[in-house]
Amino acid sequence: MSLSVLVKSASSLPNVEKFSKSDPMCVIVLQGEKRKTKVIDNNLDPQWNETLTWTLQAALSGSESLEIEVYDYEKLRSNRLLGTLSLSLQEVVSRGSQNVNSALKSKKGEVMQVCLFSVDRSLFVCVCSCV
Ligand SMILES: [Ca+2]
């Protein structure tokens, strides 16, 4: 049993670089297990199109949530947080499919749009900005 999440893209992410642009990567945590996408250098509109997969010990109950974090990658120091979102898996577990628009919060208080849908317990997440 497994759960897959397709992390598609983001747009208009906050720029935290002085001389270039943020280097975004997406981290998703399910039940304490972290998966991350590759880093897209120097791009505020990254297209990851990457599938992250978790092996599950048991069927999801619906009380779980996905913790989604978008970071600016830094080679020499800590990555910088660009935005976060906690997504409940309740609907996708009870209905088998889901189509959601939700908000990804950034440090500056900007709101970024997230849409999520699922087919056969695989979640497809599209992260994008609305600001
Ligand atoms: Ca960086």
CATH homologous superfamily label:
C2 domain
Helical residue percent?
under 10%
Compute the number of helices.
Answer: 1
Cofactors and ligands present? calcium ion
Q: Specify Rg, calculated over alpha carbons.
A: 15 Å
Overall CATH class: Mainly Beta
Could you please say which CATH topology applies here? Immunoglobulin-like
Physical arrangement of strands within the biggest beta sheet: 3-2-5-6-7-8-9-1-4
Domain C2: 1-102
Organism: Geodia barretti
Keywords: Calcium, Metal-binding
Protein name: Myoferlin
Your description of this structure?
The protein is 5% helix and 53% strand. With 131 residues, the chain is mainly beta. β8 (111-119) and β9 (122-129) form a beta hairpin. The mean pLDDT is 80. Calcium ion is lined by residues 17, 22-23, 72-74. Residues 17, 22-23, 72-74 line the site of calcium ion. It comes from Geodia barretti. This is Myoferlin.
